[in-house]
């Protein structure tokens, strides 16, 4: 049932966007981005069966279209890794592909507010560290899709370049993520 609701929301949004795109010439943009993600994994999904809460660096790129009426559609590819220099502790890699729908609200000539909602198709991989671990290291792999939202602010620098700051706090099958990211939007 959860997947049916998610797919219905995305299809409705894409249908509205398709009607808007048909009437206008949209602008294309790219946003390279980097940020901090707090990855909280419930104990049922960790290799040590202990709840994990760690901060990681997330990086990615977003490609999108925006219409003259400020409707947006985006596809993002994001990835974060545990930071472990000597393979001592357990490491987790979190990757996601996001299909997002948004609306850009012009607050004034210097600030835009951008709420977005969509689907995240994610993959969480775990690998047990070698410290105090005799034998072969255990691994885990979990994937799925969940509803995703984010709130952001866009600060125009020029007519085609702007700085973006965004925040998201989302629940997944395995736990939660809280992300703050910074990006630069290049509009074509």
TrEMBL record:
InterPro entries, per database record: Beta-barrel_OMP, OMP/PagP_B-barrel
Keyword match Signal: yes
Domain of life: Bacteria
Pfam families xref list: OMP_b-brl
Keyword Signal: yes
Signal peptide span: 1-23
SUPFAM superfamilies according to UniProt: OMPA-like
Outer membrane protein beta-barrel domain location: 10-185
Keyword vocabulary terms for this entry: Signal
Protein name per UniProt: Porin family protein
